[in-house]
Amino acid sequence: MKLLNQTTLGNLKLKNSLAMSAMTRSRANINGMVGDLHIQYYTQRASAGLIFTEAINISEQAIGSPFTPGIYSEEQIEAWRKVTDAVHDRGGIIVAQLWHTGRAGHSVDRKGILPVAPSAVAINGSQHFTSQGPKEYEAPQALSVEEIKQIVKDYGHAAENAMTAGFDGVELHAANGYLPNQFLADNANQRTDEYGGSIQNKTRFILEVMKELINTVGGDKVGIKLSPFHPYGDILFDNPVATFTYLIEELNKLDFSYVELMKRSPMFPVAHYPKDDEIELFGKQIKHVVIANTGYDKVTAEAELEKGIAKLVSFGTLFLANPDLPQRFEKDAPLNQPDRATMFGGGYQGYIDYPFLEEPTSILHS
Ligand SMILES: Cc1cc2nc3c(=O)[nH]c(=O)nc-3n(C[C@H](O)[C@H](O)[C@H](O)COP(=O)(O)O)c2cc1C
């Protein structure tokens, strides 16, 4: 079956066409460093054709939530190096997802400093998970043009650091309501300068960051995750098709590796959005490799690959709960169910203790 076939992504040779999508698990230490648990977690999943890491903060300013890792200090880079070495020892491939949370954070976990965003517009309709429990979102501090230019550079530095840490590539997290998605959105971006107003201006930030990443590490090591119809984080478009069609046209002019397309979740319907399938609608417009994401199982993923638009399918929750997902697909074996209570934060439980079909030899990297 296509899903289990070897494939390529840029210069990378993947042992199957399944990726593990990025998942924040909030188990880094107070200094944003990963440790032995992360080494185990990621190496357990090294049979994926490709692993996307949890979202990684590109700078201290990028932090939105407690216990999320960073890649801007020497010790954070060293800590990630142990993870990438261990995954490579197991024959895996691992890509760092680069994260700036923008307004999706809270000052209690930012040393009292307000989050920053395109405009001073708070997230409406949900609360933020902080180290002091759920809290209402605050109106963020609107960024100056100078600060925006600095953030573009911060993405470049983080990508450089990711290479030093041994990652096989970087993915710009432009989905799920974080900073790049905030610049794009009609409700979150109220700017009247060159970063707001027209669709051209709202896409400027993402395109500048992509160019910075490509210039820093080379296009074959760069990809982007988009979620056109997913309103998570209070992200709304008057006309998402027009915005994303323009963005894709501009991305098509750049030389990089892939676009991971996250479909909407049925839990977040938006009445005025078209009902089209995102892979059909946007995937066909994309000249880069398409990675399809959200809601797939073995059967629907195979059907997606058969259509010929996507080259890979990425799985989130199924990989979280099934470290040996490719093997389970191969054997048509039953799947472990994910435990929602241990998804974010905590220790080894619900992290590295999901059972394998056959227990592997010890994987703790020494
Ligand atoms: C616990 C958890 C954490 C997540 N964190 C991230 C993240 O850091 N970055 C990201 O791009 N998506 C994140 N996601 C979304 C997943 O990568 C994926 O897009 C989503 O779960 C849909 O795929 P699935 O239906 O196969 O689970 C997260 C999902 C879960 C369940």
Description of the structure:
The protein is built from ten helices and 14 strands. The chain has helices at 36-44, 74-89, 145-164, 179-184, 199-217, 240-251, 278-281, 298-307, 317-321, 325-331; strands at residues 7-9, 12-14, 18-20, 50-57, 94-99, 116-117, 127-130, 133-136, 141-142, 169-173, 222-226, 258-262, 289-293, 312-315. It has a single domain (2-342), classed as Alpha-Beta Barrel (TIM Barrel), CATH 3.20.20. It has an eight-stranded parallel β-barrel, surrounded by four helices. A two-stranded antiparallel sheet has the order 1-2. α2 (74-89) links the parallel β4 and β5. The protein is α/β, with parallel strands linked by helices.
Notable characteristics:
366 residues, alpha/beta, TIM Barrel, 8-stranded parallel barrel, binds flavin mononucleotide
Order of helices and strands: EEEHEHEEEEEHEHHEHEHEHEHH
The CATH architecture term is Alpha-Beta Barrel
The coarse overall form would be: globular
How are the strands of the biggest sheet laid out side by side? 3-4-5-10-11-12-13-14
Mean pLDDT level? 97
Strand content: 15-25%
